[in-house]
Write a structure and sequence with these properties.
This protein has helices spanning 11-27, 42-45, 59-62, 69-82, 97-105, 146-158, 201-212, 225-236, 249-257, 268-275, 289-292, 312-326; strands at 2-6, 32-38, 53-57, 86-92, 107-117, 136-138, 185-189, 217-220, 242-243, 261-265, 280-284, 300-304, 338-339, 345-346. It is α/β, with parallel strands linked by helices. It folds into two domains: 2-158, Glycogen Phosphorylase B (Rossmann fold), CATH 3.40.50.2000; 185-346, Glycogen Phosphorylase B (Rossmann fold). Strand 10 (261-265), helix 10 and strand 11 form a beta-alpha-beta unit.
């Protein structure tokens, strides 16, 4: 069976769609699974060896230059790539008009089906018009976790029940950047585009000072000039803290995957650390925790909720408890390993 997944963005949402692949392969072990994703996230999807072919799309870039000949040529090339295979199943797990349109561009095998969401979940960006592209629409509960939602779409189409913890099947990038320390470190994923989702800088400083006494270096990545300035202010208050250089995606993934401890707000890189089952404290300050909380591993602790950010003492206690469980050791260095839901490493 040949299957296409259309889930183009964003970073955290692409991560949360990964367990759908493991479910499909568990029930259809010989299936060939392809994935359409925004060009910025192609390298991330390629870390999942359950995906045969990753087809990049550039909707974000194309819409800025639709009139240009170069853009039109790229769109034609994308459409040709999408139609090289006759698919038995095409899944749109994003539920937007644009993703439905991409679904419609794919070529179906005889008796092939296009499967998507029948309804929104609470607070999602679902667009009901996307159903016009479906052969079948799968209903999910209004308060369905982001990971569970994609898993239920696949299960509803194929007639099985979702079972077991989420398996992200992410392989570690085979990288060792020069900036990556060999000693244990904590990473603070402090940056987020929405100011309301941020945790106060003085809280990061207090937490970092506490972790420094545990022998952990604190690393601070950033994704914009404003986040870099925030990282510099935080680092100034933490002994031995380091502000990292600008990181391409795979180096940022490496940072998350090798961390002794990750602490982060509700953002894509925090969810990547959790997907690798690294010891992770997820901080919810102004988003609903039930939507994306890491609930597949005892190595993940979720704190706070919408309008109820966690306090420093609560986060510090959670971080120390995770460190005690693993007795502060260097993360697995074998780049062929991925972590299962119980935090062990599998080849």
């Amino acid at each position: 069976m040949k299957i296409l997944i259309v889930r183009v963005s964003s970073l955290g949402d692409v991560v949360h769609n990964m367990p759908m692949v493991a479910d499909l392969r568990r029930h259809l072990p010989d299936a060939q699974i392809d994935w359409v994703v925004e060009e910025a996230y192609v390298s991330l999807v390629r870390l999942n060896d359950g995906v045969r072919n990753v087809i990049p799309v550039a909707l974000r870039r194309w819409r800025k230059s639709l009139a240009s000949a170069a853009t039109r040529a790229e769109i034609r090339a994308f459409r040709a790539a999408l139609r090289e295979t006759d698919y038995d199943l095409v899944f749109d797990t994003q539920g937007l008009f644009k993703t439905g349109l991409l679904m419609r561009m794919a070529r179906l095998a005889p008796d092939g089906r296009r499967i998507g969401l029948a309804n929104a979940t609470e607070g999602s960006g679902y667009e009901a018009v996307s159903r016009i592209f479906h052969t079948a629409s799968i209903a999910v509960g209004r308060r369905t976790h982001a990971v569970q939602r994609a898993r239920e779409v696949a299960a509803g189409a194929l007639g099985y029940q979702v079972s077991g913890p989420a398996d992200f099947n992410l392989q570690a990038p085979a990288l060792r950047p020069d900036w990556l320390p060999r000693e244990p470190y904590a990473v603070f994923f402090h940056g987020t585009a929405r100011e309301a989702k941020q945790w106060p800088q003085q809280n990061w400083i207090a937490l970092g000072a506490s972790l420094a006494t545990q022998g952990l270096a604190v690393l601070l990545p950033w994704g914009s000039p404003a986040e870099r300035e925030a990282a510099q202010r935080i680092a100034a208050g933490i002994p031995g803290a380091r502000v990292l250089p600008a990181l391409p995606l795979m180096e940022a993934v490496t940072l998350a995957q090798r961390a002794t401890l990750a602490v982060g707000v509700d953002t894509g890189l925090t969810h990547i650390a959790a997907a690798f089952c690294r010891p992770t404290v997820e901080l919810y300050c102004n988003s609903q925790r039930w939507k994306t909380e890491g609930n597949w591993s005892p190595r993940i602790i979720n704190l706070g909720d919408q309008g109820m950010p966690p306090g420093v003492e609560e986060v510090e206690a959670a971080a120390l408890s995770l460190l005690e469980r693993q007795a502060i050791r260097q993360p697995d260095t074998d780049p062929t390993r991925h972590n299962t839901a119980d935090g062990t490493a599998n080849h």
